[in-house]
Design a protein that fits this description.
Elements (H helix, E strand, L loop, with lengths): L1 E7 L5 H11 L3 E3 L5 H14 L3 H10 L2 H4 L5 H11 L4 H12 L9 E5 L7 H7 L4 E6 L2 H10 L15 H17 L8 E5 H6 L1 H12 L30 H4 L2 H4 L2 H17 L6 H5 L2 H29 L4 H22 L1
Parallel strand pairs: 1-3, 1-4, 2-3, 4-5
Helix pairs in contact: 2-6, 2-17, 3-5, 5-6, 8-9, 9-14, 9-17, 14-16
Length: 342
Amino acid sequence: MRVAFLTYAPRSGSTHLASMISTELPSLLVMPEFRLPEFLMVLGDQGVSRMGTRRLFGLLMSDAQLRTNLGLSAETLRQIADRVSGDGVAAALTEVIKAYAPSFDEGRDQVLLKLGRSLALDAVVERTFPGAKYIHCYRDGRGVVNSLLHTQKVYSRAETMGRDDSLWSARLWRQHMEIARLAPANAEGRVLHVRYERLVSDPAEVLDGVGTFLEQAARPQAARQFSVGTTESSIHPLVGGAGVSSRRDAWRSELGRRDAVVVEWMARRELSKWGYGPCAQLMSATRSDVWRFVGLAGIRHIRVLSRHAATRAWRYRRRLDEVVRHLVVQRQVHRAIVRHKS
């Protein structure tokens, strides 16, 4: 099975790109977003093969997106766990893909998995799917943070996707872009960078480049058309239509000056490296304003972290395995940054 990954920071236009790829390159099966690939690759072939049917079923059920985005029932997931118990990562993912798209023919089709942090897991990905390619969809960090701060979470209505925390949101974007910028040294020739602003202004040229990169041949009909699950449709209102240029630059009027200064201060190096300079708000602010804005954002950041730690401790008090899996993923991301920098 040939596998490619769509990698991105949240709110970077990746779902819009995935929808367009699915329409324009019908020979490619574009999977909706789900977290299972990340869970499985963190465990590795050895860890997955040692899981019994019951534990594997529990792992499948812990990914709510398998049900909301892929539409797989609990009974289907139980059957998958029965069939792949004792097998590795690739076998488990193949069964999920076939359950989602029964007409999928692994002898002909290539699969695009939508997994934001896949580049950070490249060492594991390469062992599981040798030669796997990446399409990296990226966007101006200020636009990403603005969208994060104004988009309500789907699975937790208590806050926005950015946790109402501009410092955390900017750090999230900066961390992802650092990995994406340094990764080609370890994945040479396997990464295609797609600028969201370019996708909106010239989609035909971008999609031609994607097709060439993935070596896609035209076929009359897709194995299954990409779609956004009902649960997450509220946060992707523009998917399925043409990109709206007004949304591309909406951050200029929607992102407050304080948040803009914080973002530009936190991510100024990556903004410059990816061609998103100059940092006008940061340059126009006095030094005292910068430290005041960053200090206030830091205080809010600490409050948000404390609230999240308490919430997670209560939510996962009887689900230690999920806590461990979350920590392992965070360690993998940290190691990727260290590895790429060295």
